[in-house]
Specification:
The chain is mainly alpha-helical. It contains 13 helices and no strands.
């Protein structure tokens, strides 16, 4: 938070929120507390709280950021799992998931041990989950139940954890302390794309893209809102290691990934018979309703950026010596 450019970004968002708050108050004073305006006020207030929490995590350094995203993963996975009934046979599996697999994943990420970060969930956890569920002896809808847990862990934990990993991404000519701006850029552009698509969809939306999956998503909202978010992202190239042209391409990638991430998670949500993932954030639904667009945007941006700059995370962040010594001691070596 000592980076002047990061402070400019934060100040810009705060200024927008102040304007949004004033406009909302004026509209309510003029038209009264209609359902639409009450929802708008709830959304703006929720954005204030989310901005405060996000910036507080940045102020605490890498440890604060990884702790913040570990908590978000826990809350998101909890919403995902509790949205549908969980058979008794899966209870012990979920205990392992919440209190061992998830925390260890963020330990490996924060250490950082990049190799284990990559394979801990898609290899070790995905092998362990069906084994533990099979040992419970409940075979009814076994494949469906196991796949649901694995999908929740993949999206809510593994995909989301790529966002704090941006703090470790080696970029030539870019001080690693500046990587917080890259994280801010991803979150800002992706979330702005959601807001712009919602606004333009309400104003000009006529052609629904997938009405049975997400009735509010329209072709006009995606086109105009995505273009607006891409322009804003391009204008912020000075806070990134990208040229204006590359910043435009990366912003477009975030818009597309965010849109399809939200669409896929809406399809999952509808298949479970729910409108929202939860009620934890007034005006926004649950935590997962606010994070769904970031689930696809985070890992795609992380790996595309790493490929663009030719970084080798596995070489830069091999197993830390302290972790190597601890594992040898635990194994009796």
């Amino acid at each position: 938070m000592k980076d002047p450019e990061l402070l400019y970004l934060v100040g810009g968002v705060v200024a927008v929120l102040i304007v949004a708050t004033l406009i909302t108050k004026l509209l309510i004073r003029k038209s009264g507390e209609t359902p639409v305006l009450v929802n708008l006020r709830q959304r703006v207030n929720a954005w204030w709280w989310m901005m405060v929490v996000f910036c507080s995590s940045l102020a605490l350094g890498r440890g604060g950021v990884f702790g913040f995203y570990a908590l978000l993963s826990f809350l998101a996975l909890r919403e995902f799992i509790t949205l549908s009934p969980t058979p008794r046979g899966d209870h012990r599996t979920l205990t392992w998931v919440f209190f061992l697999i998830l925390p260890l994943h963020f330990v490996f990420a924060g250490a950082p041990w990049y190799g284990m970060f990559l394979i801990w969930i898609p290899v070790y956890a995905f092998v362990f989950i069906p084994i533990r569920s099979a040992l419970a002896g409940d075979t009814e809808r076994f494949l469906e139940r196991t796949a649901r847990i694995q999908w929740g862990v993949l999206t809510c934990v593994y995909f989301l954890s790529h966002l704090p990993m941006l703090l470790y991404l080696p970029i030539p000519g870019y001080q690693q302390e500046e990587n917080a701006k890259l994280l801010f850029f991803v979150v800002l552009v992706t979330q702005l794309s959601d807001v712009m698509q919602y606004v333009f969809g309400k104003l000009f939306g006529k052609t629904k893209i997938a009405p049975k999956v997400s009735p509010s998503k329209t072709r006009e909202g995606l086109l105009y809102g995505g273009a607006a978010a891409t322009l804003i992202g391009t204008s912020l190239w000075w806070a990134t290691p990208f040229s204006p042209a590359v910043a435009a391409g990366m912003s477009a990638l975030l818009v597309a990934a965010g849109f399809f991430g939200g669409l896929v998670m809406s399809a999952v949500k509808r298949s479970l018979g729910a409108k929202d993932w939860g009620r934890g954030i007034p005006g926004h639904g649950g935590v997962l309703d606010r994070l769904d667009s970031l689930l696809f945007a985070g890992p795609l941006f992380f790996h595309v950026t790493g490929y663009y700059f030719g970084t080798n995370m596995n070489t830069a962040y091999s197993q830390p010596q302290w972790m190597h010594d601890a594992l040898r001691l635990w194994m009796g070596g």
